[in-house]
Amino acid sequence: MLDNPQQPRIDESAFRYEGWRIVAVCFLLATFGWGLGFYGQSVYVAELQRARGWPASLISSGTTFFYLFGALLVVFVGEAVRKYGPRLCLIAGTLAMAAAAVAIGAVREPWQLYLADAVLAFGWAGTSLAMITNTISLWFDQKRGMAISLALNGASFGGIVGVPLLVTLIGHIGFASAMYAAAGAMLVLLLPVILLLVGRPPDLHGWHATAKAKPQSSTEIRAWALRDVGFLTVTIAFALVLFAQVGFIVHLISFLDPVIGRERAAVAVAVLTAMAVIGRVLFSMVIDRLNQRLAAALSFLSQAAALCVVINLHNDYALIAACAVFGFSVGNLITLPSLIVQQEFDSASFGVLISLNTAINQVTYAFGPGVVGFLRDFSGGYELPFYLCIALEVAAAALIMVRGTPRAKTA
Question: 206 in a domain, yes or no?
Answer without folding.
Answer: no
